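Section 3.1 - Work completed
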Amino acid sequence: MPHPTTDLRWEPDPLLGDGFAQAPLGPATLVRATRRPCGGPRGVVLHVHGYNDYFFQSHLAEVCVDAGLAFYAVDLRRAGRSTRRPGATQRAHAVRSNPSRLPAHYVTSLREPGADLSAAARALRAAEPALPLVVHAHSTGGLTAAVWAHAVRADPWVRPDLLVLDSPFLDLQGSWVSRTARTLALQVLGRTHPLAVVSTGPSVYAEHQHADGGGRWRFDTTLKRPDGLPARAGWLRAVRHAQLAVARGLAIESPVLVARSAASGPDSPGNPHLDAQDTVLDVARIAALAPRLGADVTELVVDGGVHDLTLSADGPRADYLDRMLRWVGDRLAAGVEEAS
């Protein structure tokens, strides 16, 4: 099979500025760190964001490059940088008359962002020939990357060599009864009224993370919104279909690292542990479902970690990045061909 080729039109990245460039990739947008590892890279990382999110974690790029890894990220279709293109998104009331324009982050199947991951993987195989591909994916991006890695497992030019999932959205919160009831309701509502808003409200987590809310990070609040991003029935139905596939069991051939916080807590201003818990997902559900992803799954638990472990307080963040990159380095040193 011939090696894939992709022509990318790189230009300065207006969101991160010096040290980063961006290029359109179909409906998605590829971002790269322009600094290269000393002596050349031993692998390439592709970061995938979650819902109500985009790539802004420049510190993640820096530690990856310091560890000898070329760094890229993808803003998926209708998310982040990709929404800044003319006509990329539009208010929901106009969608039926012009289905090419949809609300931010909206998809009806995770195969749609999965196609963006395939395009990004092909582009990186061409740009970084012969280098192992490490996909680092967060939250809904982690769920998307998991079902995508399962779907492309027979394609050597696309499938990842290593898969790192940072707090993947593997299940809904709540009891089995409540999860089952919501699943049944979504099957109907997601098909008949896909743009119906099924949940909305502020993201206390995002507000608390931003420097203006007392946090340590600066990000574009129109792309990662502290006021929250409505979850629509069609999108959540697509998420639930992927989660049920995980529950049945996937066969990801690549070694998988599943990282999560040690504890969950409420996404509430009254929670004194907002900066030390996953206040978005139930970490017990992540732990229960992680072994169903494939034959080679390693768990990484971070005491004091928040939902996006790369945004945790200094100690937990350093712990996550060190142990995650050590796992990647050990697997690369051992030879990912043998490990997978």
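Second construct:
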Amino acid sequence: MESASPIDECVRKAAGAHARFRPRFPWLNGDLQTVRNMIVRPRPGFADAPARRIAFAMDDGTGDSLLADLHAPAAPRRPLAVLIHGLTGCGESFYVLSTARALLDRGHPVLRLNLRGAGPSAGACREQYHAGRTADVARVLGALDPALTREGVVAVGYSLGGNVLLKLLAETGAAAPVRRAAAVSPPVDLAAAARCILRPRNRLYQRYLLARMKAEARATRGGLDARAAAAVAAARDIVEYDDSVVAPRYGFASAADYYARCSSGPRLGAIRVPTLVVHSRDDPWIPPAALEAAARAGNDSLRIVLTERGGHVGFHGAGAALPWHDGLVAAFFAEA
């Protein structure tokens, strides 16, 4: 049974007759919900709002630019929605496209952001995103065309992108550059997520993610120097990669230091704009304990929805074409 709390009212409003998540057959457990994103990839159409590519130059002296795709309906009625993908994802990831379609259908213009070095941003960047690189997202939000933001801005982050978004909201408090936000399957305790992905039962996930992380690193503009290239090649698991590649490259003492300084979990109490977090207890990658603790601690600005099933950024529900969390997020934004 899902957690009982005042948040249930948000679930009821958002999901209507399907307030309790019910997985779609045959994707009945957390692993199947998770891998469906990798093997079944329908692409929603956007003929009514074709994408326009936008570049956001970073102001940190790297010469890097983040690329994004903007869908702007002829008569937007709601805030601009900025979508932030997860680890080894990009603006073309299925879960990003599905939310884009759901929000466009409700009158939101949508910006699908590619984080630093991800997807099409790889060729425009020497550096890469990581779980705590909030300044990049803040830079994008601050550089948006005022014509796009007349109705305000909302944001959605998935997995690692969800952690980045939550950390940014905590850092900015009441001055956050969005009216509302949502995070789906965020690893708010990065150390716990790392321990989980190292479990023997997750070895295939580990292999998949690590290979994609290495490919991302090699694809950045100008490639890698000899030390970094050797470290990327030698890493045998994600923690080794974070310890030997991410940490030294971005000023952390170790993987443990990186996880401690970039986890949003200890900071969730500082969030001051209405924020929805959706997570499943059967997520094979991310344990629910940190979000359960945050729900117990309480924060009037934070609505945490914990389901028993749904996997990692899965939530492929019975009787719906798009993931269940898309309806939840859309209804939450409609309350603004």
